[in-house]
Write a structure and sequence with these properties.
By secondary structure, the protein is α/β, with parallel strands linked by helices. The chain contains 16 helices and 19 strands. The chain folds into 3 domains: 2-159 and 249-286, no CATH class; 168-247, no CATH class; 300-474, Aminopeptidase, CATH 3.40.630.40. The relative contact order is 0.11. The structure holds zinc ion (2 copies). It comes from Alkaliphilus oremlandii (strain OhILAs) (Clostridium oremlandii (strain OhILAs)).
Length: 477
């Protein structure tokens, strides 16, 4: 049963049958791998490609914070994504006598990279690939207009020997004219003009017969050309009908060059080295199984409900709601929530009591948790101001990243507005020696938000959203 639990599943929406099919993630990686690169590639190149495929799938998966399938909200991805990939049985013919061996090779590439994905800023990247780059890959803005930090141009001499390095396509002029909306040909064909460097110095008689002509710099009589080229008259003309376009490389040049990757693998580079070469600044990590029921096991958190006690300096809303009470209530729900997720949780106060800021800092520093989270409600002199603000101490990228996840979750679940994740120099942010955030859930001075905070259900919702943000923060760590 334990082995079963370790598997990760992806939900695929089959539009034709209008139903969701659940498949093992690693099986789908195999199917896509067989289709996307030649199986004759070096093992490390196959491993690199497996990690790329898995990254792109995980990026869509809802359990990992992906957006899921546009056509069916319950699913992760549409079956159209796998449309061109054939079931593995179909390779019996394609791989002829080698089927068993290649299938095993495929299995090794996927199993040895099981769970590995490419992350940038702790999120799965959009892992682009192309067959052959032709000398260098592209900057994202050169292809799609927007700057993606990990899709930077890198030189690639690795794909030069590939079968697709130089290519050409012959396109009829008419087609070029039509597709580009330009005019290239002349209608009066019997008065054809010279073509630079090819045909010059044409002399015709009054009937249009060619007397003399220079082709490729050499002079000919009209009759000579007629005989040598076996055309039926000296009253001839010409017009180019095709343009041959030469191309270096194959594909848009974004991300990893697949033939380059194979050459690097053949010269001893590992899958990880290859991926880090083509994707700038990324990390390769194994994802955690989302079905584990205790995603925050071994995490220690200190939750700090702001203010408290008789002499409290907290804010009061227009309808009489006290900030200290809301803070405590959310903190208590959050404690339950986090404990259920496996975390060890401490509160700086569990009742309506006064605890000095200094004592809160001492407590936090004694425990040395993974995070210290202060919970407050905001206040402004004008009642119209609303939304969530989150503060962190300057330079603490880890706290900022947690803040971002909590912000997203609160905006989604409590429907608050994102009013920013900002730096601040508050006493506790400064004095607590571990990563800390100060959360202003909503504005108690805004009558609508005050009313929202009065509802027990919404405090629970806020607590659940904060917990969800924490789980999301840890999902790849
Ligand atoms: Zn290349
Ligand atoms: Zn406060």
């Amino acid at each position: 049963m334990y082995e079963e639990d370790k598997k990760i599943y992806i939900n695929i929406y089959d539009k034709g049958q209008d139903k969701i099919v659940t498949k093992e993630l690693e099986e789908m990686v195999k199917v896509l791998l067989a289709w996307s690169v030649p199986i004759s590639f070096h093992m490390e190149a196959l491993k690199a490609q497996s990690i790329i495929i898995r990254t792109n799938l995980v990026r869509e998966m809802k359990v990992y914070g992906g957006y899921g399938c546009k056509e069916n909200k319950e699913a992760d991805i549409s079956s159209a994504y796998f449309k061109e990939a054939l079931p593995l049985e179909n390779y019996k013919e394609l791989w002829e006598g080698n089927y068993e061996g290649y299938l095993e090779k495929l299995g090794v590439a996927v199993e040895e990279t099981e769970g590995s994905v490419i992350l940038f800023n702790n999120k799965p990247i959009d892992a682009r690939t192309h067959l052959v780059c032709g000398g260098s890959t592209e900057n994202s803005e050169g292809v799609e207009g927007n700057v993606v930090q990990y899709l930077r141009k890198v030189l690639c001499a690795h794909c030069q020997g590939s079968p697709y390095f130089i290519n050409h396509k012959d396109i009829p002029l008419q087609e070029v004219e039509k597709k580009l909306g330009v005019k290239l040909t002349r209608d009066d064909v019997l008065n054809a003009a010279s073509i630079d460097d090819i045909i010059d110095d044409v002399v015709r008689d009054e009937d249009g017969r060619v007397i003399k002509i220079k082709i490729g710099g050499k002079e000919f009589k009209g009759k000579e050309v007629m005989d040598k080229l076996k055309i039926s008259s000296t009253r001839f003309s010409w017009r180019p009908e095709l343009i041959r376009f030469f191309t270096l490389g194959e594909g848009d040049g974004l991300g990893l060059c697949q033939y380059g990757s194979n050459t690097m693998a053949c010269s001893g580079r590992t899958a990880e080295e290859i991926l880090k070469y083509y994707y700038t600044g990324v990390e390769i990590k194994k994802i955690k199984n989302p079905s584990i029921h205790k995603p925050l096991k071994d995490r220690i958190l200190v939750i700090d409900p702001g203010h408290g006690g008789e002499e409290s300096d907290d804010y009061t809303g227009m309808q009489g709601l006290r900030e200290k009470d809301v803070n405590l209530s959310i903190a208590l729900y959050l404690k339950e929530e986090l404990k259920n997720l496996g975390a060890t949780v401490y509160l700086t106060r569990e009742t309506d009591e006064m605890v000095h800021l200094n004592d809160r800092a001492i407590m936090a520093n004694d425990i040395a948790p993974d995070f210290f989270i202060s919970i407050h409600q905001n206040y402004f002199s004008h009642p119209s101001k609303s939304g969530t603000e989150i503060y962190y101490f300057r330079g603490d990228g880890r706290a900022k990243a947690l803040g971002r996840e909590i912000m997203i979750a609160l905006n989604e679940d409590l429907k608050t507005l994102d009013k920013g994740i900002k730096q601040a120099d508050f006493f506790l942010l400064r004095q607590v020696m571990v990563s800390s955030i100060h959360l202003e859930t909503a504005y108690i001075s805004n009558p609508v938000e005050e009313k929202m905070l009065m509802e027990e259900e919404n405090r629970k919702k806020a607590a659940k959203a904060i917990a969800k943000g924490i789980v999301h923060f840890y999902r790849y760590l």
